[in-house]
Each structure stands twice: as C-alpha cells, then as structure tokens.
Design goal:
With 460 residues, the protein is mainly alpha-helical. Helices cover 62% and strands 5% of the residues. It folds into 3 domains: 12-102, Fumarase C, Chain B, domain 1 (Orthogonal Bundle); 107-149 and 161-209 and 227-349, Fumarase/aspartase (Central domain) (Fumarase C, Chain A, domain 2, Up-down Bundle); 356-458, Ribonucleotide Reductase Protein R1, domain 1. The strands form 3 sheets. It has a two-stranded antiparallel sheet with strand order 1-2. A two-stranded parallel ribbon has the order 3-4. It has a two-stranded antiparallel sheet with strand order 5-6. A hairpin with a 2-residue loop joins strand 1 and strand 2. Helix 3 packs across helix 8, helix 7 runs antiparallel to helix 10 (230-256) and helix 10 (230-256) packs parallel to helix 12 (321-345). The longest helix has 37 residues, at 106-142. The structure holds arginine (ARG). Arginine is lined by residues 20, 24, 80, 106-107, 110, 314, 316, 318-319. Arginine binds next to helix 6.
Length: 460
C-alpha cells in the first residue's frame, strides 16, 4: 500500500505495532456504509461515473454480506479495517476499487466510522438503561408501603419506603439518559469530507454524504473535524456517571444481602458460594459491577491523557481512542444487562426491613414535630425528643413503649395521640411533600418516571 515515497518493506514488528485491525474491525458495518455514501456522493458530483458507483456499491455490499455470514474473514495482517475493506474491494472489482478513496482520507474516515459506531452504542446503552429504570419502577410499584430505615451517615435516620428508595435510582438513570441523548447530538456530526486535514480540491457535497448517513450536521472546520475526539471523551464521561450510579446501587445490594442487614436475599442464580466456607452466598455480580466502575473511569482518564497536548491535526496517538471507548461501552452494557435480572429475582425481606426500622429511633424527628405542631418551638422540641431517646437507650426501650405518664413528665403537651404520630407507617405517610416518601408521592414519582421513559422511547 505504501509504495510511493517509501520503497523498503516495513519491519514485521513495526507492522504489528502499527496495526489496529484487532480492535477496529468491529466497525466494519460503519466503514462499509460510509464508503457506500461516499461513492454515491462522488457519482452525484461527476467525480466518478454512475457505473463506477454501481460497481463500488455492489462490491461493498458483497463484502458486507460475506463478513456478516463469516464467508469472508478479517485478515489479521491488515493494518486497519479501512485498508482491509479497500483491499478486498480492489481484489474483487479491480481498478474501480482504487477510485473509492478519492476526496477522502483515513483521517476523516476513521472519525466517521467511530462516530457512527458510538451513536449506535449510545442508543443501545440508552435502551438498556430504560429497561433497568423500568425494573426499578416495577419494584417501586410493589413496595410503595414497604417500610425500611433510610440512612444518613449510614446511621438509621427516618423511615422511607423501599419503593421510594428504588425510585431514587430510577431518577439517576433518567439523568443518565438525558446526558447520553445530549452527548449523542455532538457525536452525530459528520467529519467526512474534511479529508486529511485541510478539505479537498474536488467539488464534493459533504452535506449530501452526511444526510445519507443520517447525521444531523457536518464538522465546520476540517482541522477540527479530523482531530476532534471530544465526543468519545464525553461519552465515557456520561458512561462513568452511569457506572457510578450502578456501583452505588450495587454497594447497597451487597450491604443489604449481608447477615448484618438481611434486607434482601439474592437469587441463587446471581450469587456464588465459597470454595471453602459452605455457608457463603456472595454477591459477586454486584461486586463486579462495583469493581468494573474503576475500569470505565480508567478508560475515560486514558483518552483524556492521550489527547492532552496533542497538536492538530491527526496523530497516530489517536488510534488509541478506540480500545478504551469500546471497553467502556461493552462494560456498561454488560453491567446494565445483569443488574436488571438481579433486581427482578431478589427477595425483599420486608420483615427484616421493618425490624430494622423499629430499632434506631427513626421516629424521633416525628416526636419533635408532634410537639412543634402543639405549639413548641422546634429547638425545644428537639431537645425533649433527644432526652426521651436517651432515656429509652438507658432502659432498652423504644419510643412506642414509653407510657404516656412518663411522656408528660417531659412536656404537658404530650397526649394519647402522640402514639399515632410516631407510628412508623404514619411517619412515612405524613412525608407527603412533593418528592417525599409517602405512598401518594411514590405513585406520582412512578407516573413521572414512566412518562419520561415513554416520551423517550421513540427517539432512536
Ligand atoms: N487506524 C487508524 C486509527 O485508528 C486510522 C487512521 C490512520 N490515519 C493515518 N494517517 N495513519 O486512527
């Protein structure tokens, strides 16, 4: 291929080192449809004949079919997917194959392929996120009145419903969807026609090519068009945030599945035993999701570091963009796929959640609020409630067990209705402020999540 300025053969080791076919062959579909659009554009401008275009398209369609069916194998010795396709094409259709690369360079070609590939990944990942959000919403629907302790500082704080808890994660996923949709806008800009770096002397029609390939617009500066990998960085940024959310949920599952919490039991299908300790049921899958989060962050940092200080325009360093971003996409997809069934098949141990909610004085705020509603300033009420909790701790009781006479020693404002006020179920139900944990609020949240998911559904 390089017979031109260079006369000698390149070193075998150098060839292997230089080659990207091992990881860029997964973009063969994008490469081929990009080439088909390119041929159509060249013909529409009279740069090649219609007959040439026909031959190129037939040849390219044949390669696509043969690669898909496995009749044609990727040559591991090719330098990259672009060279491979062009080489096979020329072998198959002869001289006309050599016309395809008119008014284009691998620099704009690789940027095009990567953008097309990643917009597809964006869509697939969004689909999986929506599925997970639906699973969480279904759990919320089932557990709108399942009481559990909510925590701050990992200390029992106030009662919340398990449904409310699940919806917190659904909200995170909605933001993730939004971020991906936004990032997709910047991915979906066509670099083709920027050529090597400076544009071309041919009378090309970049917009036609972009439209054929379903891009929303074209890169407006050719140097930028071939140098820009912001879109891959941005995608990995969004994916890192997805993983951060999944790892937080995974961590909760790991904790809840422990003997100490006992809030859930994971299905046998999603736990593993220990090779030595017969009693173990480890939450390996959730741990792996937590662990793989570091890997996706690493992919993001890798590309940011590769691009740092890189001069314009194309530099071979940029070949390093692909493995990381592919790995990030693959990892996120795998984690999303496995998390939904883990959640669907787990058993929610309502009894243990309630037991935990009954200990830890998570109705102490409500006791203070009771006094406030009877006219006491909050700070004073807070103090009394705190003293009662301290007395209960000393005597190993919970607030519900303290007799009314004893309450009245702390304040004359206490009456029989205080027991209703500190009843856990009531405590939960009374938190009916918008976005709160009451059943009515949970139902509103479910409707909100569903409406966003339905609105989104037909986008891509
Ligand atoms: N395999 C290369 C990459 O992934 C394609 C672009 C090569 N361009 C060049 N001027 N060497 O970046």
């Amino acid at each position: 291929m390089w017979a031109g300025v260079t006369a000698g053969e390149t070193d075998r080791l150098a060839d292997d080192f230089n080659s990207s076919i091992r990881f860029d062959s997964r973009m063969f579909r994008e490469d081929i449809s990009g080439s088909m659009a390119h041929a159509a554009m060249l013909a529409s401008r009279g740069i090649i004949t219609d007959r040439d275009c026909e031959l190129l398209n037939e040849g390219l369609a044949g390669i696509l079919e043969d690669l898909q069916s496995g009749r044609l194998e990727i040559d591991p010795n090719a330098e990259d997917i672009h060279m491979f396709v062009e080489q096979v094409l020329t072998e198959r259709i002869g001289e006309t194959g050599k016309k395809l690369h008119t008014a284009r360079s691998r620099n704009d070609q690789v940027a095009l392929d990567l953008r097309m590939y990643l917009r597809g990944e964006c869509d697939e990942i969004s689909r999986l996120i929506r599925k997970l959000a639906e699973t969480l919403t279904a759990l919320a629907e089932e557990h709108g009145d399942t009481i559990m302790p909510g925590y701050t500082h990992l200390q029992r704080a106030q009662p919340v419903s398990f449904g409310h808890y699940m919806l917190a994660y659904a909200m995170m996923l909605l933001r993730d969807l939004d971020r991906l949709a936004d990032c997709r806008k910047r991915i979906n800009v066509s670099p083709i026609g920027c050529c090597a770096l400076a544009g071309t002397t041919y009378d090309t029609d970049r917009r036609m090519e972009a439209e054929l390939l379903e891009f929303d617009g074209i890169a407006m500066n050719s140097l930028d068009g071939v140098s820009d990998r912001d879109f891959a960085v941005e995608l990995m940024g969004a994916l890192s945030i997805v993983m951060m959310h999944l790892s937080r949920l995974s961590e909760e599952l790991i904790l809840w599945a422990s003997w100490e919490f006992g809030f859930i039991s994971l299905s046998d299908a999603f736990t593993t035993g220990s090779s030595i300790m017969p009693q173990k049921r480890n939450a390996d899958m959730a741990e792996l999701i937590r662990g793989k989060t570091g890997r996706v962050y690493g992919d993001l940092m890798g590309l940011l570091t590769t691009l740092k200080g890189l001069p314009l325009a194309y530099n071979k360093d940029m070949q390093e963009d692909k493995e990381g971003v592919f790995d990030a996409c693959d990892t996120v997809k795998m984690c999303l796929k496995i998390l939904s069934p883990i959640l669907r098949t787990m058993t929610v141990r309502k009894d243990n959640m309630l037991k935990a909610a009954q200990k830890g004085f998570i109705n102490a705020t409500d006791l203070a609020d009771y006094l406030v509603k009877k006219g006491m300033p909050f700070r004073n009420a807070y103090k009394i409630s705190g003293s009662l909790v301290a007395a209960c701790i000393r005597t190993d009781r919970v607030l519900e067990e303290v007799p009314i006479e004893e309450y009245r020693e702390y304040s004359e404002l206490f009456a029989e209705d205080l027991y209703e006020a500190i009843d856990l179920k009531n405590c939960m139900e009374k938190r009916s402020s918008e976005g709160g944990t009451s059943q009515a609020s949970v139902e509103k949240q479910i409707a909100y999540v569903r409406s966003v998911l339905n609105d989104d559904k037909d986008i891509h």
